[in-house]
Design brief:
The longest helix is centred in the last third of the chain and has 19 residues. A four-stranded mixed beta sheet has the order 2-1-3-4, with helices on one face. Helices cover 42% and strands 12% of the residues. The two termini are 23 Å apart. The chain is of the alpha+beta class and 148 residues long. β3 and β4 form a beta hairpin. The chain has six helices and four strands.
Length: 148
């Protein structure tokens, strides 16, 4: 799906921006966020938690659950990606060697689902959950987006 298909306030907020929306209470998802911050040296991505007003509006617009998040979202070059395709889209924007992981996008859908869904479904049990959403430090705060 393209951001052009989103409701106007979301479209205005996201036009021209790459964004990763992640579950801020999930230890695994927050580790992915920290990984991206570390290796996205060109600062191509902005961030939002799924629990934020922007995250909630995006999940609602995409008819995704608003509490038990089944996927991170990655918006890259105006396109919205979910599940393993979101991971591939994020990796495609990083420098080598991480960029090589973008090949996961070309796996058959059944294989992608077999890899992604069990991890997503069990991530809290396997990796843990925090009691509160991640609060970015001052250096990262400017890279977080929200609806304005």
């Amino acid at each position: 799906m393209q951001i052009a298909a989103l409701p106007s306030p979301l479209k205005q907020c996201l036009t021209g921006k790459n964004l990763i929306v992640f579950d801020g209470a999930c230890v695994f998802c927050s580790a992915f966020f920290r990984f991206m911050c570390r290796y996205d040296r060109a600062q191509k991505f902005h961030y939002a938690t799924a629990q934020s007003p922007l995250g909630q509006a995006l999940y609602a617009a995409l008819n995704l659950p608003l509490v038990d998040f089944e996927t991170n979202l990655v918006i890259s070059n105006g396109e919205i990606h979910q599940r393993l395709d979101a991971f591939a889209a994020a990796m495609a924007e990083l420098p080598a060697p991480w960029r090589a992981a973008r090949v996961t996008r070309h796996l058959p859908q059944a294989l992608k689902d077999a890899i992604y869904k069990p991890i997503a479904r069990n991530r809290y049990r396997i990796f843990g959950r925090t009691d509160a959403c991640l609060i970015p430090d001052a250096s990262l705060k400017a890279r977080f987006l929200d609806l304005t």
